[in-house]
Amino acid sequence: MAETFSIQKYLRDLKLPFCPGCGIFTVMNTFLRAVYELGYEDLSKFVFCSGIGCSSWIPSPYFVADSVHTPHGRSIPVATGVKLLRPELNVVVFGGDGDIVGIGMSHFIHAARRNLGILVIMVNNMVYGMTGGQVAPTTPFNTKTTTTPYGSFEQPLDAARLAVAAGACYSARWTTAHPDKLEESIKKAIRMKGFRFIEVVSQCPTAYGRRAGFKNAKKMLEWFKENAIPVQQTEKMSEKELERKIIIGEFVERRRRTIVENIYAIIKEAQASAGQN
């Protein structure tokens, strides 16, 4: 009889710190299921990097794997060093929206521009959840948070499209209400080379939901399903029709040389030139 998937296979025997109803449970389970279905018996071929925030606790210290817990917003530069030194490893960054495209915005853009061969999974709960529920770069317009009690007055950042514009080889967005699509996306991204970005819009009933008017996590998941629009349909929709909608799907999939391939090719050329001289 074939072995069935168990998340415990990849986790240390530690109590998880996440709030009841948090979407991080779905993200963690979906990622590890994808790893299992790709045939990885353990996580020895992976290195995980994460910053500060609820989502950054996904791999460290809970995965039975090598992981680096970095300062806020600095997971991608650390992942850069790991990938340059150990290009054969799967380097995966987990972080929240504040960590990846708030504090760490410049690192995110330049990693995509350089086509760094890592996978970044950004759990977007639309707020700074761990530090008190402050407004974030991804908070929907006119949403109440601890720092915008009368409603946020900024338009949210579209991280998935930003990744495309910056040069990512793969960019996708799903929600925790679409776990099957998310799993297939993760499997595809792990198999690919280059900079890969997956945004997961996730419920945060504690810091976001109760202030934004959602009674519980179930209501947030229902809202995700009701307001998710496949990216293919958006071409025929106006900006007004897309207000407060969640555009899901794959935004780009392409192949180009990675910065690691470029650097090692230059080293090889330099070594050959030095030998000739």
Instruction: Say what the CATH topology is.
Output: Rossmann fold
Ends: how far apart?
Answer: 62 Å
Mean pLDDT: 95
Sequence of secondary-structure elements: HEEHEHHEHEHEHHEEH
As a percent range, the share of strand residues is 15-25%
Per CATH, the architecture is 3-Layer(aba) Sandwich
- Number of discrete domains: 1
Overall description:
With 277 residues, the protein is an alpha/beta fold. It has one domain: 3-Layer(aba) Sandwich (Rossmann fold), CATH 3.40.50.970. Helix content is 36%, strand content 16%. It has nine helices and eight strands. An eight-stranded mixed β-sheet has the order 2-1-3-4-6-5-8-7, with helices on both faces. α6 links the parallel β5 and β6. α3 packs across α4 and α4 packs across α5. The chain is globular, with a radius of gyration of 19 Å. The termini are far apart.
